[in-house]
């Protein structure tokens, strides 16, 4: 948890403590729901990096520095 999110949660706790408590209790459930999307993001990023490496392979073999 970053410092900014901690400050925002403390501000929410000052304004409306039941909502802050609910957010604190539901955060692990939200994290579990979003976990497959994060894994998908890593997989897509890795696939795009592989495609980029394949496109740059001929230039790297010819000695182009970029």
Order of helices and strands: HH
Report the uncertain regions: none
Give the amount of beta strand, in percent: under 5%
Shape type:
elongated
Radius of gyration based on Cα positions: 21 Å
Number of strands: 0
Sheet with the most strands, sense and barrel status: none
Average pLDDT over all residues: 92
Number of helical elements: 2
Class from helix and strand fractions: mainly alpha
Helix content: over 70%
- Give the N-terminus to C-terminus distance in angstroms: 37 Å
3D structure, described in words:
This protein has helices at residues 3-15, 17-61. The protein has 66 residues and is mostly helical. It is elongated. Keywords: Membrane, Transmembrane, Transmembrane helix. The chain crosses the membrane at residues 32-57.
List keywords for this structure.
single chain, mainly alpha, membrane, transmembrane, transmembrane helix, DUF4175 domain-containing protein
Helix and strand topology:
Elements: H1 3-15, H2 17-61
Provide a brief overview of the structure.
This protein has 66 residues and is an all-alpha fold. It has two helices and no strands. The chain crosses the membrane at residues 32-57.
């Amino acid at each position: 948890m970053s410092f900014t999110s901690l400050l925002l949660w403390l501000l929410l706790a000052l304004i409306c403590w039941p909502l802050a408590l609910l957010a604190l209790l539901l955060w692990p459930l939200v994290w579990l729901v979003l976990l497959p999307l994060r894994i998908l993001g890593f997989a897509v990023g890795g696939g795009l990096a592989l495609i980029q490496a394949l496109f740059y392979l001929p230039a790297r073999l010819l000695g182009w520095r970029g």
